[in-house]
Amino acid sequence: MNTFWVTLSASVIVVLLSIASLPLLNNNANYLKYLRRSSSEVADLVVTNGTIYTSDDSLPFADSMAISNSRILRVGNYSSIKKLARTLTKELNLHGKIVVPGFIDSHVHFIPGGLQMARVELRGVNTKDLFVEKIRKAVANVKEGSWLLGGGWNNDIWGGDLPMAAWIDSVTPHNPVWLARMDGHMGLANTLALTLAGISRNNENPNGGAIIRNNDGEPTGLLIDSAMKLVLPHIPEASVDERREALLRASSHALKRGVTTVVDFGRYFPGSSPEYPWDDFSDVYRWADLSGNMMTRICLFFPMETWSRLVDLMSKSGRVLSQWIYLGGVKAFADGSLGSNSAFFHEPYADDLNNYGLQVVDLDSLYNMTFSSDKSGLQVSIHAIGDRANDLILDMYASVASDKQIRDRRFRIEHAQHLAPGTVARFGEQSVVASVQPDHLLDDADSASKKLGCERAERGSYLFKSLLTKNAQLAFGSDWPVADINPLKSIRTSMKRVPPGWEKAWIPSECLCLKDALNAYTISAAHACFLDKYVGSLSPGKYADFVVLSTNSWEDFATEVFANVEATYVGGFKAYSIRPEDKSE
Length: 585
Hints:
By secondary structure, the chain is an alpha/beta fold. Helices cover 33% and strands 20% of the residues. Among the domains are: 41-102 and 540-584, Urease, subunit C, domain 1 (Roll), CATH 2.30.40.10; 110-234, Diaminopimelate Epimerase, Chain A, domain 1 (Roll). Strand 10, helix 6 and strand 11 form a beta-alpha-beta unit. It holds the Pfam family Amidohydro_3.
């Protein structure tokens, strides 16, 4: 009888402990499976003695976690985690350091970013003379007749004057040149490049683009949005080897910043070929996956005009190609950018009263592609920066979703930078993801006031807090190489909103708290691309992607947001360390 009651009591205790654990399951079948197996599983790695922010509301903080087979086995206190350790289990003692989930950059152009790292870098150039000098030095190392490529320039930081071919013609007489503006919606060609492309005063502006001309009607060398397609086909495509090297450079750079997953919109810009992302998929990503060269997880979006090809691919292979590669959806453009005066607004630009911006695509065509993509089950993402562009896309999304077919669509708007009164609430009401890039506001704060007027700019620009308050899903990213991949900097930007040279915040009412900013780079970013079953939080069953930060004070981190990435782990393995000599774990 005593044996019976002892056995029964033990069974009751196990049941009660299991019930007590249920709030941690987060309604994911994987979590339950891993928790059931945890009593018999052995951890490969236990992470202890830290402040672990999980991005999981069921257990926001823990001091330890166990990892097995690249996934999280258990999260909690040390006494529960140490039970999973055996002789061969490794231990990572955090010594009080903060750990957060691996960051998810919701908007990058990954291979273009890697390519740009090997080209002329004009980011931060703040005078005409320095601009010209950079080109003069770079062309000296380029074979005569070869293209000189680069980008990252921002005319706003040298006073606003737009560059012209005449600036650089004298230092590049034998080399065609193409230099993309930082936002990718405008580029500068020298006269030799214009000649090779057949661009003269006789060319008309293409639909959705513009050739900038001087008072005599001659092209200055600047091309906006779809006008760039007049030059881009003449530029030799990067070789397969160059693009593969670009992926490796980009991945290493991302890992240094704590980024373990990116949503990649590829080599697709207004005026570029829709084939480029597909070429990179087959030549670069497939190669890297099969050869063991993938270092970060990639969620791929493809040009919307190729939607049927993506449907065919998904029907054959599914959405998850491996632990590294995920097929996301399709992307299109509604307008250009603020810096290029091509973002589409309800009111004209304050510094160009005849200009409302550019609608870079035919709306009927965009609606038909969106409807077909959505009907086929693809996630749809559309670039919209100006307030009118955002309203047009929200209207279109509402129309597409009015077929009464209730489905988890997670429509996305990329950037959502400037919103008209009343538009903010529509994101939450329509369950549209606002995929935004905090660091863009550092570049736009001064120019927005000039281009839109102070009152209009402050009323509707970068409304992060308002979007969250109205129940919108917020996903953070960088738009690299437009801005650098740097989640910790972006998190600080979203919390402080102090542009360079400013002493106070720009629109302080829109500042976020640390939790909201971290979630926008982790669990919300994962949800925004349908990867929340795999990554985004440090929860049982998900991949063990996490970042060790340099600080051990959560209070200081939440206040000042000063921290560096000390180490990045992907699938429980150290992928980056600030101390490369440290070979443990």
